[in-house]
Write a structure and sequence with these properties.
Blueprint (H helix, E strand, L loop, with lengths): L10 E5 L2 E5 L1 H7 L3 H6 L11 H12 L7 E7 L5 E13 L2 E10 L1 H23 L3 E5 L5 E4 L2 H6 L3 H4 L16 H11 L1 E9 L5 E11 L5 E8 L1 H6 L4 H31 L11 H18 L3 E9 L1 H8 L1 H18 L5 E6 L2 E7 L3 H16 L12 E9 L8 H23 L1
Antiparallel strand pairs: 1-2, 1-5, 3-4, 4-5, 6-7, 6-10, 8-9, 9-10, 11-13, 11-14, 12-13
């Protein structure tokens, strides 16, 4: 089934607890040679904790039961490393008997990043729940949004008793008029610090030293930290040491918040970026093509697609090794990007396959870009000293000219078919 070798996802056919077919992407994913995979028990590759569920679902699927077509599970590669995978499964007929066709998507990097994000959130939650000082959140109108359990230790109020109520309900009657001044300072300066006089649930006078910071955005809010300094006020002690501690704690909260935001941005970017070349990945390609196709049909402007396959790349990998293959892919990606226009969109969609979206470009213009790419790659020493040249097989398809293509999925299929046809012509010419 050579066609499956050109699909960027790992694919296999499962029957009788063994693989009947595996493509080269599955070989790369697991680290096991193809012949060894075909001799293995499939379940040896599945994480022991996930094995019973997958065996049960495979049995039910083979007997025709209605089983979810896609789910996540863990697997083990040749080196014992845990892989997080999303599988897409369908029942087929192979050798006149039921079999399962499986496609896998490696989501290990995304899972690890999510775990990193969860740990950071857990650290922040631990600080919020266990710090000795009161941490509070309120809106710009002075209503509490959240308070930590330290509130109860000092005031007798439960956090839920004050959530949604105005800050003034917590203040001493003689200073309630200062709330407006405090909110104005927060709004204008972005932060406020000082001494506040309040009351406990039993009506006892209490003094707080606070530091509040405004967090701007779509839904702005104020986050701050407060420390009971009643004893120091009554005794006339200096508050410098406590201010230093308050500032340190607030900086820690700000730092953790920045780490969470940075981790989220990093996760979103990595989910759409090919880690080797820096180009957009298949997910980014699908999103961009759907967006540009919709714009093309809405504005009655053409949109072209180039599907690109690197000829002789497998031979480079087999003879020079994966590091050399990676260097070649990075070089090819850079040349493709340099040869395209600034508004063209370049992607690596898997293995040795690339794609270029050409907005507002008809078929003639797209073929000019394709010719320019072929010449640029042919004129470069991608793998110096290697006897076989590196060249590109490019399939061109255009949306918005004629009636041959109706949507972005048909655009992909046509460009893919033309790329494969050109690759076959190149092989025939070389033989």
């Amino acid at each position: 089934m050579p066609l499956f070798d050109h699909i960027p996802l790992p694919i296999y056919i499962f029957q009788d607890n063994s693989f009947k077919y595996v493509n080269r992407q599955l070989v790369d994913l697991t680290g096991f040679p193809g012949p060894e995979l075909l001799q293995m028990n499939v379940w040896d590759l599945v994480h022991p904790e996930d094995r019973p569920l997958l065996m049960e679902r495979a049995t039910q699927r083979m007997t025709g039961n209605n089983i979810p077509p896609s789910y996540e599970f863990r697997a083990l590669n040749r080196y014992g490393e845990v892989l997080h995978l999303r599988g897409y499964f369908s029942l087929i007929t192979f050798a006149q008997r039921p079999a399962i066709l499986g496609q896998l998507l490696d989501i290990t990097r995304e899972r690890n990043l999510l775990e990193e994000l969860r740990r950071a959130e857990a650290r922040l939650r631990d600080i919020f729940e266990n710090v000795n000082d009161i941490i509070y959140l309120h809106d710009l109108e002075g209503r509490f949004l959240a308070l930590n359990p330290a509130l109860t230790r000092y005031t007798g109020f439960l956090p839920d008793e004050l959530a949604g109520r105005e800050i003034s309900s917590f203040l001493h009657p003689q200073v309630k008029h200062l709330l407006g001044q405090y909110l104005k300072e927060i709004t204008e300066k972005g932060e406020a610090r000082g001494l506040m006089r309040g009351l406990t649930k039993e009506g006892r006078e209490i003094f707080w030293e606070y530091h509040s910071v405004l967090f701007k955005g779509k839904n702005p809010f104020v986050r701050g930290i407060a420390r009971d300094v009643t004893e120091q006020v009554h005794m006339g002690r200096k508050l410098k040491d406590y201010m230093r501690l308050l500032e340190e704690k607030n900086r820690e909260l700000v730092r953790i918040n920045e780490q969470l935001l940075a981790a989220k941005e990093k996760l979103e970017k990595m989910a759409r970026t090919d880690f080797l070349t820096g180009l957009g990945n298949r997910l980014a390609f699908q999103e961009a093509l759907e967006k540009e196709s919709s714009r093309s049909m809405r504005c009655h402007q053409p949109c072209s697609l180039l599907m690109i396959d690197v000829t002789n790349f497998k031979i480079i990998n087999d003879n020079l090794g994966h590091p050399a293959g990676d260097r070649a892919l990075k070089r090819i990606a850079k040349l493709i990007q340099q040869s395209c226009r600034r508004y063209d969109l370049c992607f690596r969609i898997g293995g040795d396959e690339f794609a270029v979206i050409l907005p507002c470009t008809g078929e003639e213009g797209a073929r000019e870009v394709a010719d320019r790419l072929r010449k640029r790659i042919a004129g470069e020493a991608i793998t110096p000293g290697f006897p076989l040249p590196v060249c590109l097989s490019i399939g061109v398809a255009t949306l918005g000219q004629g009636r041959e293509i109706s949507d972005h999925e048909e655009l992909i299929r046509l460009a893919d078919t033309r790329m494969y046809q050109e690759k076959c012509r190149q092989k025939a010419a070389a033989s």
